[in-house]
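1st attempt posting a full record on here, be nice pls
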Amino acid sequence: MPNKQLTLLIGSYAQQYYLKQRSTEKLTDTVRNYERYLPEYFPLVHPSPRNNIWQSKNPWFLEQVIPDLQEHVKEILE
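the predicted structure (as tokens):
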């Protein structure tokens, strides 16, 4: 993929591997600070129904992170 512009890191295992994180680093902190990893990586929680509780405890995810992800993808596709 010579034109790869963004890698979505979905879940803690992907984030630990690609970001070289220790297992003690919190997924919430990584996702909340997603801008730190741009433009190469965009860390996200796994889109599983099991994460509905996490999303309800972290409303900033749907309010800030998802719209920013949508904007990044839109820019890449244009």
